[in-house]
Amino acid sequence: MKKSTLYTAVFSSLLSAGVVASPSFDANFEINTDMIDKDIGDTTYLESGRVEFSTLGKHTSGDNFVEGKGTIEIKVNGTSTVADAYLKVGNSKWDIQLGRFEAINLFPKGKDVIVENAGGVTVYEANKARGRTSDNGGQIALHFNPSDSVHFELGTIYGAGDSDNDTGDNTTSIAGIRPIVQFKAGSATITAGYESLDYDLTSGSAVSQSGFSLGANFDVSGANINIAVTQMEDDETDEEVSSVVANMTYNNFGLGVISSSVDDASTDPSVTTIYTAYTLPVFDIDNASMTLAASYSTADDVAADVNDTVMATRVRFNYTF
């Protein structure tokens, strides 16, 4: 009886101090079978996929919390990678996030199961400092929630690493900065963001890029709509890139278009890509699905030996277990 009373007292004190939640585990398998048809060269057939394992843990004490997440991807080509590995500490008004993760998406593409852009024309997605950096850098992000309708995110790249280039020399502590503000009104969300990258490369050259994005997400007659416009300036190449994305998702169907143009003071290439996808259940099993997807892209004012038309199709199977 005394032991039972003691155990009850200890358990009650733990509950009053904070809530301890058991970590959650989930996994899913995804495989893609692709056919890519270009105007120059033979049609290409590809297969890609991965098994994703994820774990999430969270402890709370009143309004305060500590959260950790790790996600590993084992690919069918025999390689593996870490998608997310971060720690988040804070409360409902603010928190700080450190590690490897992706910040707010400033160029949402909706149901973008396959998108193959023609001509090698740059599409600026305002994601140069979004995250999941290389081995040469990490991430630190601050989040503020002054009200239910306003959200701020201040993302940074710590050290000289980003998703596109892993040869930074790490001589700058904050190599990238990315402030974002979101306003919510009913079912609509307006997002505005800016990002800047500035660091040296081990080769002796440098990265100096800056850009902004303005986007809106809203619902219309059961469909979810995304619209975003972006612009980037590259101080090293003197190029300016302007991009637009518009897409809708209605139940299992998605349709979108991307347009981008580059001002390079020479040829000024541009690209337009249309993409679509539709998801079907497999044998009426909730955990399994098949998605049929396609994209068609054309580019103007590109080099003669570059594909200016690309047609791509994909069959994707996904199984969550």
Care to describe what's here?
With 321 residues, the chain is mainly β. It has a single domain (23-320), classed as Porin. The protein has one helix and 17 strands. The protein has a 16-stranded antiparallel beta barrel. A hairpin with a 3-residue loop joins strand 5 and strand 6.
Entry summary:
The chain is mainly β.
Write the layout of secondary structure elements.
Blueprint lengths: L1 H16 L1 E2 L3 E15 L5 E18 L2 E12 L4 E11 L3 E7 L37 E10 L2 E9 L15 E12 L2 E13 L5 E15 L2 E12 L4 E12 L2 E11 L6 E13 L2 E16 L8 E12 L1
Antiparallel strand pairs: 1-3, 2-3, 2-17, 3-4, 4-5, 5-6, 6-7, 7-8, 8-9, 9-10, 10-11, 11-12, 12-13, 13-14, 14-15, 15-16, 16-17
Indicate the multimeric state.
single chain
**Which structural class do the helices and strands define?**
mainly beta
CATH names the topology as: Porin
Mean pLDDT: 91
CATH superfamily grouping: Porin
* Dominant shape: globular
What is the number of helices? Answer: 1
Question: Termini distance?
Answer: 43 Å
Percentage of β-strand residues? over 45%
As a whole number of angstroms, the C-alpha radius of gyration is 23 Å
**What is the number of E strands?**
17
Helix proportion: under 10%
- CATH architecture annotation: Beta Barrel
For the largest beta-sheet, the strand count, sense and barrel status come to: 16 strands, antiparallel, barrel
Q: In CATH's first tier, which class applies?
A: Mainly Beta
Spatial ordering of strands, largest sheet: 2-3-4-5-6-7-8-9-10-11-12-13-14-15-16-17
What labels describe this entry?
about 325 residues; mainly beta; 17 strands; Porin
